[in-house]
Specification:
81 residues, mainly alpha, 0% strand, extended
């Protein structure tokens, strides 16, 4: 999630990002969307803890690799649309 360069309502966009990543919203995500929250300060509901599976080998990417390939990946994605 981010704010595009040149956003006309940057302050409003920042408030939206803050809301989406805030603990209140993030704590509602697990039982509404069945995914783990992005905010690691968000508490998981007991029901989610009981039944959700932890990925055994989650995929992680080096931020430098993302930066080095971002434009190429975006362009490739645009061609698929």
């Amino acid at each position: 999630m981010g704010i595009l360069v040149g956003a006309k309502q940057r302050e409003l966009a920042q408030k939206f990002v803050d809301f989406m990543l805030g603990t209140t919203f993030q704590e509602d995500i697990p039982l509404q969307m069945f995914v783990y929250p992005a905010n690691n300060r968000a508490e998981l509901p007991d029901l989610f803890k009981q039944f959700a599976e932890q990925p055994k080998d989650p995929v992680e990417m080096n931020p430098n690799e993302i930066e080095a390939n971002r434009e190429r990946w975006i362009e490739r994605g645009r061609r698929w649309c």
